[in-house]
Amino acid sequence: MSELAIDAIVFDVLGTLVDEPAGIRAGIHELDPSLDDPGVEQLLSLWQQHIDREQRRVLDGVRPYLTSDVLDLEAARLVADAAGVDDPAAVAALAMSGRRLPPWPDTVAGLSRLAERFPLIGLSNASRTALLGLNAHAGLRWHQALSAEEARTYKPDPAVYQLAVTVSGRPPERLLMVAAHAWDLRGAQSLGLRTAYVARPVGDPPTPSDGFDVHADDLAGLAAQLDHP
């Protein structure tokens, strides 16, 4: 840790700072209150598989770039069809559930603590509009929030991480990318950013071959390590 000198912190949002599955689950419950827990989980998986697949198709050049709003609406239609719901208003409400995601218990206090020492940059695959909504709903504190929409692609495309480098005006190695997803941190590493893995129940844990600069159980642990290298 003694060699970790950074000027700003870049945060992934979905999964790292907010509990994305919990928000989508709540939307599915609202869509069909009669669903039992296994039924909700099955529909949540349908949603997640669609988003992952379509973002990958964009990254692979198979599909033109579409914002997360479009993909969320597609996922909502798939879920509603599977649940036997054909009310357009209910589908639209479900699509908006991606903007009503609860923060993890340590998120708000952790960001506040870190913001006392570093500029904080949010960097999300969520669209600009969705990012505004979820930041407000979860009470996230930023000095700058950046959407992958600006690069018209999705993480882990290096062009998305370049947004943070450009905005900060600092070299990549002076930025610390924080995420609960090892794939996200690998993408940041490809551009030269330093990396911090924060464990979350819904994240993508590191493999033995990953070499991230910091590992923390939560944001308080991250802040403590940055306070005392």
TrEMBL record:
UniProt lineage: Bacteria, Bacillati, Actinomycetota, Actinomycetes, Kitasatosporales
Keyword Nuclease: no
Family named by the database record: Belongs to the HAD-like hydrolase superfamily. S-2-haloalkanoic acid dehalogenase family.
UniProt cross-references to Pfam families, sorted A to Z: Hydrolase
Gene Ontology molecular function terms on file: hydrolase activity, acting on acid halide bonds, in C-halide compounds
Domain of life: Bacteria
Official protein name in the record: Haloacid dehalogenase type II
Keywords, comma-separated and alphabetical: Hydrolase
